Amino acid sequence: MKRIARIAGILLGALALLVAGFVALNWAPDRPVDELKARWAQPPSAFIELNGMQVHVRDEGPRDDPVPVVLLHGTSASLHTWDGWVRALEGGRRVIRVDMPGFGLTGPTPDGDYSIEAYTRFAISVLDHFGLRRCVLGGNSFGGWVAWETALAQPGRVAALVLVDSAGYAIKSQSVPIGFRIAKIPVLNRIMDVTLPRSLVESSVRNVYGDPSKVTPELVDRYYEITLRAGNRAALVQRFLQAPLGVDERRIREVKVPTLILWGGRDGLIPVEYGGLFNRDIAGSRLVVFDDLGHVPQEEDPARTVAAVKEFLEPD
């Protein structure tokens, strides 16, 4: 028994040394938001007081647009994911985008509530803040889930939906970014509160692209640095715990607004079959699949994907 205990002690000691070495090599503490603003909140970025948070927003395009486009990003992303769409739309449409609670430069919520109900209330608060009676509401991944829940909560205010590789169903992923997997593992996710290998972020971003060669160092910089915003890593863990996929999937059939569904055919996180389920369950919806794109097609190929949006919003 003494020999077994000695061996166990040696193994535990070695493990402790490995963990300590990993932490030392990959030490990455939270960064205050003010430190990140200079690079990631250039004009036209602004911060608005909303639900006890300083919410990072961008409001672009003509203010007289009667039905602005509002865009919601997905888990661990930011409003920057819509850059290409905004450049294509802002000449004729007002486009409002936000960093959702727990992500981007907005950071964590004061009350620690990351339920889908809390995110839906947040989206409605955004519409209220900008005085929007009607809008086109678009969302990618988790942002898509928030978008269709908002359309159910306030159908009179949502003129149309654009769902991009949207969450909502209880999914069986083919491939999950390593960062998401770690965020769901107790103990490991606590270590990630103070460490963040850049290679892990790069691997996660490449995982959600149909063509990983399109992932540039600048793109990895953005995801890496914004993930370090104070409170974001702890919020990610809570987002997964408090908003499990599929809890409201039965309600998708209740969506009654015109809906465009865009999907990347190479999406391993939410495979394209779920685009088909949305198309089946939302009466009158239209599904467009981009066979060569991944989970964030609006970022991977903004020109092609926004063309489908323009056709949907302004048909000949």
What is shown here, in short?
This protein is α/β, with parallel strands linked by helices. It has helices spanning 2-25, 33-40, 83-89, 116-129, 142-153, 178-183, 188-191, 198-207, 217-227, 232-242, 273-281, 297-300, 302-313; strands spanning 45-50, 53-60, 69-72, 95-98, 135-140, 158-164, 259-264, 286-290. Helix 11 (273-281) links the parallel strand 7 (259-264) and strand 8.
List the keywords:
alpha/beta; globular; 13 helices; 42% helix; 316 residues
Radius of gyration: 20 Å
Through-space gap between termini: 81 Å
Write out the CATH superfamily name of the largest domain: Alpha/Beta hydrolase fold, catalytic domain
Number of strands: 8
Structural class by SSE content? alpha/beta
Identify the strand order in the major beta sheet. 1-2-4-3-5-6-7-8
Q: Can you tell me the CATH topology of the largest domain?
A: Rossmann fold
User: If classified by CATH, what would the architecture of the largest domain be?
Assistant: 3-Layer(aba) Sandwich
Q: What fraction strand?
A: 5-15%
Detail the poorly predicted runs.
11-25
Binned, the helix content reads: 40-55%
> SSE order in H/E notation?
HHEEEHEHEHEHHHHHEHEHH
